[in-house]
Design brief:
By secondary structure, the protein is of the alpha/beta class. It has helices at 14-26, 54-61, 75-84, 99-112, 126-136, 185-194, 282-292, 304-315, 343-353, and strands at residues 3-8, 30-36, 50-51, 65-68, 88-91, 116-118, 143-153, 169-170, 173-174, 200-209, 218-225, 230-236, 238-251, 254-259, 264-266, 274-275, 320-321, 327-330, 337-340, 369-375, 381-388. 26% of the residues lie in helices and 30% in strands. The termini are far apart. The structure holds nicotinamide-adenine-dinucleotide. It holds the Pfam family GFO_IDH_MocA_C3.
């Protein structure tokens, strides 16, 4: 049976979803029954009734599945409305911005019996599956830690793209549009997936910014897991040459490296990276789940650890402003770029050594903010202690 799909948030990244939906529609898997946006919908590969108000759409179009691609601070209320209207949901990442929101949405899922898949599309990659299988077969030996680093470049225009760009809060609610929580969230979600349920017990966090923004454009954090193993994350949007995003698995028998945006893999004994193409489409997976109970690739429940770390970002001090000789500015606004000198070498070293920037000879690095995470008697994660060292 064809699933009736609606998309809320049809511009921006919503255009990518419209192309995905068009492909599934051509294959007879979905029917697009509505597009919703508070702004006029830009031209795309589709035609469907257009709504401004998602509640009106839910009443009139009665979709089976709703894709939600609105700004993160709007996710929880819109997802709640869609689930209560009887739809299953594909919710863009970051699904919610705090553990309180995660618990509230999980409760709605229990209440309604509906499903929520989160848009961490790299979790559906064949390369990640092969890496996890190789780890299970002992190809890297015993895993002692995992790290990820990425070096991207964003100009001033990026921070003018929408009202929540570069903002810590919007209308008093967390927005958290930093490098860690938004564009590079996939990188450390891959790491948490590789560590397979090993819960975080501590987060050491260093955040930096090179512009007049409220969030990090450069950051390093070390998540310590219950087993004692670290997950080190080092990312920047003020990078030198582009590093797409490498996930480095440290093992007693060697290292496995996954370039997650391009699905390339290098295992011990390989001469170099090789392509491992193929991704399971998260919407198609959700539709199969509805039809025959196929397991979801990225259910909301598997993002609790990710969201626990967002709670730490929410309560951490403002990112440190870098300037002067540490950075190089090029061009004029809105195409101006800012680059941190030597940042690529520094980020790569954190991944090599499972170290924080502040533990390396990086002159601009500052002491980390530290948060301890514990489980409540109901086995839910919470921040139990925080200090700035
Ligand atoms: N999975 C990925 O790789 C990926 C990539 C980019 C963005 N995203 C995520 O997608 C989401 C949207 O990001 P974006 O960059 O497209 O944001 P955006 O602000 O550019 O676009 C969001 C769209 O939602 C619309 N909108 C806002 N509030 C609305 C409401 N209440 N009802 C209906 N429409 C509303 C806006 O008008 C806009 O057209 C975010 O959660 C973002 O993190 C995910």
């Amino acid at each position: 049976m064809t699933a009736r799909v609606a998309l809320i948030g049809a511009n921006g990244h919503g255009r990518w979803h419209r192309r995905q939906i068009a492909g599934l529609r051509a294959a007879g898997i979905v029917e697009l029954v509505a597009l919703v946006d508070v702004r006029p919908v830009e031209p795309g590969p589709d035609e469907a009734p257009y709504f401004i108000d998602h509640r009106e759409m839910l009443r009139e179009a009665e979709p089976d599945v709703v894709v939600i691609c609105t700004p993160p601070h709007t996710h929880r209320p819109i997802a709640t409305d869609a689930l209560r209207a009887g739809a299953d949901v594909l919710l863009e990442k970051p699904p919610v911005l705090s553990l309180a929101e995660h618990r509230a949405l999980s409760e709605v899922l229990r209440e309604t019996g509906r499903a929520c898949q989160v848009g961490f599309q790299a979790l559906g990659s064949a390369a990640l599956r092969e890496l996890r299988r190789s780890i299970a077969y002992g190809v890297v030996g015993t895993v002692t830690g995992v790290a990820t680093f990425a070096s991207w470049q964003r100009d001033d225009a990026y921070y003018q793209r929408s009202p929540w760009a570069g903002r810590r809060t919007v209308n008093g609610r967390p927005a958290l549009d930093g490098a860690l929580a938004n564009p590079l969230a996939h990188a450390w979600m891959q790491c948490l997936a590789i560590m397979d349920g090993d819960k975080p017990v501590g987060v050491e966090l260093e955040r930096y910014r090179c512009r007049d923004i409220e969030v990090d454009d450069t950051a390093c954090m070390r998540i310590t897991l219950a087993s004692g193993r670290p997950v080190v994350v080092a990312v920047t949007l003020c990078g030198e040459e582009k590093v797409e995003g490498e996930v480095v698995v440290h093992g007693t028998a060697g290292r496995g490296v996954l370039e997650y945006p391009t699905d390339r893999l290098r295992l011990p004994g390989d001469d170099g990276f090789r392509d491992v193409p193929g991704r399971t489409n998260l919407l198609e997976n959700l539709i199969r789940h509805r039809a025959d109970g196929t397991a979801l690739i990225a259910p909301l429940a598997c993002t609790e650890q990710f969201t626990a770390v967002l709670d730490v970002l929410n309560s951490a001090p403002e990112p440190v402003l870098l300037g002067g000789d540490t950075v190089v500015e090029e061009g004029d606004p809105p195409a101006r770029t800012v680059t941190i000198k030597g940042v690529n070498t520094a980020l790569r070293q954190t991944a090599e050594k499972l170290a924080l920037l502040s533990e390396l000879p990086v002159p601009w690095a500052v002491d980390p903010h530290y948060a301890r995470l514990t489980a409540t008697p109901e086995n839910a994660l919470q921040i139990s202690e925080e200090t700035v060292r």
